[in-house]
Amino acid sequence: MPAKIRLARAGKKKHPYYHIVVADNRSPRDSKYIERIGAYDPGVNPPYVHLDFDKALNWLQKGAIPTDTANSLLSAEGVLFKNHLLKGVQKGAISEEQAEQQFNEWKQNKERNKESVRETELEQEKAAQKERIESETKINEARKTEISKKKVAEFEGSEQGESTEEGATEESAEAQKSTESAPAEETSTKTSSEESSSEEESQESTEDKS
Which of 28, 45, 165, 184 has a CA that sits 20 to 30 A from residue 15's CA? Predict the structure, then answer.
């Protein structure tokens, strides 16, 4: 019976995840399957992959053919490489010990690459976070400067208003003083003129008597 290793969709609308299954090649997609051998969730970072390595390898040895996406997942997990090494053992090209050694070296290289990728991602996250902090600091400093300028402008405006009021008050006081001094001057003028006329009259009366 021809078999295929493929993905069977599950999950909610717009938030899918997939089962990695072995199904009859003639059955439609997402229909009944022979066996489930793993799961795949592309909606997380990094994508989640869970695979039963031995079952997947067993089905490959039985002749099951993976679809393109399933083939990528099996390759990333090392199933295809292990299957390739076992074929070499069957043909006598390499021994089982050599196959096991090569596969272990492949796994170690994969782990080192994963660790390198994680470190790179962490460095990028730190750099991005630092950039965000610097940007926020600049924005906050600009806001503080703007607020300070507004406060200075308001303070200068209030001082100018107070000086204007003081000047107006002084002008009013001077005007009032000048108004008060004017009648006094007039009274003094009148008094001196009256005294002068009185003296003239006294002098005339003296002349008449003589």
Answer: 28
